[in-house]
Amino acid sequence: MTQPEFKCAIVVSDELPTGLAVNAASVLSLTMGHRVDGLVGVDVKDADGVVHPGVVYTPLPILVAPREQIGTIVEIAAAQDGMFFVSFNSLAQSCKTYEEYIDKMAATPTADLASVGVGLYGPRKQVNKLVGSRPLLR
């Protein structure tokens, strides 16, 4: 299970239209749920005994920031010990298949990737320092 001193958040570009912002947040949350042990809770039973798959164990705010700030958040997160992050870029969002994504990524230098979203999981103080002042996606 996640620990109370840890926190997660997703930040998407405020330049994205709603559909693309939701897409970015969805992709980031799936990757985080897959990669961060304990982020998704155990399955639960309701009063009738029906089993429901576990959901995210901790709050997961979806925040917004200007695109250039997302790149800065990614850079800072990459340099911090104990911080898990996943970046989502506009190149990925433009691809129709995963094979196309693989091919385009192989031909694109890191410096040319424009982050449109980032998912974070790490010590509460570090996450708050990075994104605590960002507003919620509305």
From TrEMBL:
A Pfam cross-reference name: DUF2000
Superkingdom per UniProt: Bacteria
UniProt-listed Gene3D superfamilies: Bit1
The protein's name in its UniProt record: Uncharacterized protein DUF2000
